[in-house]
């Protein structure tokens, strides 16, 4: 056997899944997080907690103008501060922000150009964090200030909106039929503008990096969502090759998009560590995370719907303007789900961008759908009111049979099941559709709903699975799984352990899940809700490969073995001869996917002479015994998955429905969420507990988006006025009532070998609209400008 065979898989056809064939049935179970006790006992090391001997501390210094150049950095005031080591400045723009979507700019020799207020321009290094902080405050920077020429007001800049870069951007414009004519010819129309504000990703763990060099190799403990692409960014920024960079993110305290790319503190730490030849730790302050990493763009969205008197939609227009720094490719892809959510032969999705001198905009918590579906789903609710049709019924009538833009089938689509199950649980039938009809004491009560949808994708991912002898384990063997996939609080460690344990027939504590290190095989990383499906498939295939190797090792046809509690058991009665095996193998080949053939030899069984064991009295064999036969006492396999044609031949998306009940105070206009129910269908569920938690998170984000989250940019210089969690409001416990989540049963054989789909960002997509629609039902006021603060209801 080769020591590391690679089992590649392209997803081109519906595939079977091993999960249904195994006995232990661990997948799906709501088990606790395998890293839970480490986290709550403070033993899970986050980047800022890593310590190296001789380590020093850096604090970033930010620009205080919106546009212009750094003229001079005067560090004379720092000379009297004990512990100050050095001020590392930015002659090559390395701190600008090499985040996702950022174009590589040619450095301007000797000049630091400022693009936005808050842009890091230098880092002060000291023996202590306190000294570095004091030094950063004392540094005197003079500027050639061009703030007067800066673009700082999104609304004012709207007339200057320009085309987006479709090639490098986050979605594509699209037109089907004749939308304007369709609208003009419709019996019933609705045409509205919606505004959503700049938002802050606000992960709980601020960005932090400890960087040090071992000769020419840079090692960084940093808080990242995507190791492989972040490593590439570091290589690009510092002109290093792949052997010269190692990124490690064992534990990540949330990212929500702000850690998809490398943030400025990483590169600053790497450069300072090189200059000083000492390990450098830079932790961003909360204000810096908000000012200098990434934000979600504000948007202005036009939704225009044309339908007949029965609500059958023929036209859907979704035009969006969002903002970013000049020259950036990323734009907020608000209309991703508008392309397939409802029927309609005429459709237009159009994106435009305005340039602003404000911190980079990029991905945040379901980039696109999270704010795009606010517009679409509020419009659907208003249309339902206008037509006097129940909002669920209106959506049911507009259920497309196929993806209406591309004329391809859905892999699975359970929007109706989600609405029905959610409605039943929520008690939707008791609803009074007449707005402002229910006053309880001082509070107007209202209910609302909205659909959810989030596109599903598969990204190339690899994993390595190794069985090795371990006397400390009950069964004398353990499986070590390695992939550079991260766990950003989502439960990757746990769900992948479940997958590996299930396929290898081992108890879960016999799985050692190793994530978040660029020295492991590269995977999708955590973003776009693709991680569990993509990196999980890599793990699945590696374990399946290992299972096949074990079968070969004991001389059995892979499909006839059962792995259970560290034993290889023969599940089939007959023991195939070589001839039979060859015939079976050919048969299997013609059946397509499940090809249990050794690709090197072309047959399913090894020659009798190479057989290690005598199976005349075969009952079962211990994995540990087989593994210990090997010189190195381990057996290793690699799995790899790549996107195939499925993503193009089928529209893949998770669907759901959110229901909300709100109370609005009749005097103050204060809005309280009383309860929410969400029903979501995302293929098979790997772990009901972590999946449910993901949905809770999405619904909580929905509350934030509907009622409170809003970056306030100072109109004079674009600075973020509310750059901390005291002023930038995210929902706290008191804002979040009991939430109910229903995971609607689904199995999607077109997505990946596990039949799962992305769930993380499904619940947020549409959640804010459900709340807005409930507010309308409570008080009869439609708010088009988010968040819905009390002043907008009075
Ligand atoms: Mo998510 S915003 O794709 O990390």
Number of continuous helical runs: 17
Strands ordered across the widest β-sheet:
4-6-2-15-12-13-14
Task: From the 3D structure, determine the CATH topology of the largest domain.
Answer: Aldehyde Oxidoreductase, domain 4
The top-level CATH class of the largest domain is Alpha Beta
Tell me about the largest β-sheet. Answer: 7 strands, mixed
**Through-space gap between termini:** 74 Å
Helix content: 10-25%
Based on secondary structure, the structural category is alpha+beta
Strand composition percent: 15-25%
Poorly predicted sequence stretches spanning 5 or more consecutive residues? 97-110, 573-617
Instruction: Please tell me how large the radius of gyration is.
Output: 28 Å
Oligomerization state of this entry?
single chain
Which hetero compounds are present in the coordinates?
Answer: dioxothiomolybdenum(VI) ion
CATH superfamily of the largest domain: Aldehyde oxidase/xanthine dehydrogenase, molybdopterin binding domain
- Domains counted in the coordinates: how many? 3
Average pLDDT, to the nearest integer?
A: 90
Overall outline: globular
**Under the CATH scheme, which architecture of the largest domain would be assigned?**
2-Layer Sandwich
Counted beta strands: 31
Protein name: Molybdopterin cofactor-binding domain-containing protein
Organism: Psychrobacter namhaensis
Region (Disordered): 158-182
Domain Aldehyde oxidase/xanthine dehydrogenase a/b hammerhead: 41-147
């Amino acid at each position: 056997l080769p020591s590391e065979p690679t089992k590649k898989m392209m997803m081109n056809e519906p595939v079977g899944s091993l999960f249904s064939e195994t006995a232990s049935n661990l997948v799906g179970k709501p088990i606790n997080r395998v890293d839970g006790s480490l986290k709550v006992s403070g033993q899970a090391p986050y980047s800022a907690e890593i310590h190296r001997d001789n380590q020093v501390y850096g604090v970033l210094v930010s620009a205080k103008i919106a546009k212009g150049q750094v003229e001079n950095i005067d560090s004379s005031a720092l000379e009297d501060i004990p512990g100050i080591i050095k001020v590392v400045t930015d002659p090559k723009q390395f701190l600008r922000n090499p985040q996702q979507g950022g174009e590589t700019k040619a450095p301007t020799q000797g000049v630091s150009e400022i693009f936005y207020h808050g842009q890091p321009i230098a880092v002060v290094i000291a023996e202590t964090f306190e000294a570095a902080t004091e030094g950063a405050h004392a540094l005197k920077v003079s500027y050639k200030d061009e703030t007067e020429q800066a673009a700082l007001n999104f609304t004012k800049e709207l007339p200057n909106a320009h085309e987006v870069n479709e090639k490098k951007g986050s979605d594509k414009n699209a037109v089907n039929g004749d939308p304007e004519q369709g609208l003009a010819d419709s019996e019933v129309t609705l045409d509205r503008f919606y505004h959503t504000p700049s938002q802050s990703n606000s992960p709980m763990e601020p960005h932090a990096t400890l960087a040090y060099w071992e000769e020419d190799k840079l090692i960084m403990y940093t808080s990242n969502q995507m190791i492989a692409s972040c490593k590439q960014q570091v290589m690009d920024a510092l002109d290093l090759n792949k052997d010269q960079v190692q990124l490690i993110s064992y534990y990540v305290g949330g990212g929500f998009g702000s850690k998809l790319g490398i943030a400025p503190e990483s590169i600053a730490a790497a450069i300072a560590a090189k200059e000083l030849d000492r390990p450098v730790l830079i932790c961003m302050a909360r204000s810096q995370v908000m000012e200098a990493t990434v934000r979600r763009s504000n948007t202005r969205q036009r939704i225009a719907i044309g339908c007949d008197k029965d609500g059958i939609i023929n036209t859907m227009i979704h035009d969006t303007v969002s903002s970013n720094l000049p020259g950036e490719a990323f734009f907020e892809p608000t209309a991703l789900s508008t392309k397939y959510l409802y029927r309609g032969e005429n459709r237009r999705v159009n994106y435009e961008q305005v340039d602003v001198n404000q911190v980079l905009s990029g991905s945040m918590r379901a980039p696109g759908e999270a704010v795009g579906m606010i517009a679409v789903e509020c419009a659907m609710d208003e249309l339902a009111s206008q037509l006097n049709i129940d909002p669920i019924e209106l959506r049911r009538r507009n259920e497309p049979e196929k993806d209406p833009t591309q004329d391809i089938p859905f892999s699975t689509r359970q929007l109706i099941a989600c609405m029905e199950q959610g409605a039943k649980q929520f008690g939707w039938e008791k609803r009074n559709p007449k707005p402002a009809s229910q006053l309880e004491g001082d509070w107007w009560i209202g209910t609302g709903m909205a659909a959810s949808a989030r596109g599903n994708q598969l990204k190339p991912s690899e994993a390595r699975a190794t069985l090795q002898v371990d006397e400390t384990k009950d069964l004398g063997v353990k499986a070590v799984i390695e992939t550079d996939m991260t766990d950003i609080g989502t439960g990757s460690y746990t769900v992948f352990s479940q997958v590996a344990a299930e396929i290898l027939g081992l108890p879960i504590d016999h799985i050692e899940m190793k994530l978040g290190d660029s020295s492991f095989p590269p995977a999708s990383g955590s973003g776009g809700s693709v991680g569990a499906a993509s990196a999980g498939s890599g793990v699945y295939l590696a374990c399946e490969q290992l299972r096949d190797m074990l079968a070969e090792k004991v001389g059995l046809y892979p499909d006839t073995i059962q792995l259970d509690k560290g034993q290889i058991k023969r599940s089939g009665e007959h023991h195939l001869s070589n001839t039979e095996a060859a015939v079976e193998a050919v048969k299997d080949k013609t059946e397509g996917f499940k090809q249990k053939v050794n690709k090197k030899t072309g047959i399913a069984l090894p020659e009798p002479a190479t057989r290690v064991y005598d199976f005349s009295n075969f009952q079962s064999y211990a994995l540990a015994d087989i593994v210990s036969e090997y010189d190195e006492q381990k057996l290793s396999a690699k799995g790899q998955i790549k996107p195939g044609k499925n993503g193009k031949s089928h529209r893949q998306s998770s669907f759901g429905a959110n229901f909300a009940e709100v109370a609005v105070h009749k005097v103050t206009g204060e809005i309280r969420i009383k309860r929410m129910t969400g029903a979501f269908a995302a293929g098979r569920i790997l772990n009901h507990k972590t999946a449910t938690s993901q949905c809770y998170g999405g619904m909580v984000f929905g509350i934030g988006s509907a009622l409170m989250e809003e970056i306030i940019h100072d109109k004079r210089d674009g600075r973020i006025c509310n750059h901390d969690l005291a002023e930038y409001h995210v929902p706290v416990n008191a804002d979040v009532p009991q939430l109910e989540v229903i995971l609607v049963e689904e199995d999607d054989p077109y997505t990946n070998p596990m039949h799962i789909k992305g769930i993380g960002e499904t619940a947020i997509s549409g959640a804010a609209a459900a709340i807005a629609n409930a507010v309308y039902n409570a008080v009869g006021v439609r708010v088009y400008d988010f968040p819905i603060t009390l002043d907008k209801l009075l």
